[in-house]
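Justification of resources, computational component.

The compute hours requested in this renewal are based largely on the per-chain cost of generating structure records like the one below. Each record pairs the submitted sequence with a full structure-token output. That output is archived, and it is also reused by downstream analysis tasks.
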Amino acid sequence: MHLHKEGFTTILISTIVFLALQLINIYVIKRMFPNIALFLVIVVTVCFFIVIWFFRIPHRVHTKGENLIVAPADGKIVVIEEKIDNEYFKTKRIQVSIFMNPLNVHVQRYPINGEIIYSKYHPGNYFIASYPKSSDLNERHSVVLKKGKFDILVKQIAGALARRIVNYSHVGEQAVQNEEMGFIKFGSRVDLLLPLGTKINVKMNEKVQGGITVIGEIQP
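The structure output for this chain reads:
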């Protein structure tokens, strides 16, 4: 396991704050309010390690396959339905949504190999990511990958706690399955918009792992 580069600044700031609070606790609170000093030590320490845990990247053996659509993120399947895509395709697609809680691994990975033909950031609101309309109303970044006649839209969506979406995609580049596409800080959601007829291998409320779980299969 290692820590993601997007967490270095946050972890540095958290370390400084953690040490400062501990010093205040030792030299001020412990003398004035000794009964709550230990409690504060525990709370501050737990919060510090939660921040570090959030940016972890565990070692995994990723699933690969030219016809496989691999989960782009960790989380729980909260939507499997047909929906009109109003952003790019303008047609009906199969939407599969993965909700990430703050304790999930928060890196996003490319689900397939393909050319990046669309990459766009959209400012927006910060509704709870499980809210159905968050796909269209929240801050988000959409990427379309094209593999032959098959194309897929991957959408990073900010939630109530997530306030920064990082995306590494550039139009014209080649996406490699399971390589990093981006990162969302502190809880959110990822949508997949797949062609009708795509075989779906997951079910509602199923927990998935990014880079491992097969979401679906590209049909000939």
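The CA atoms of residues 29 and 35 lie 9 Å apart. DSSP finds three helices and 16 strands in the chain.
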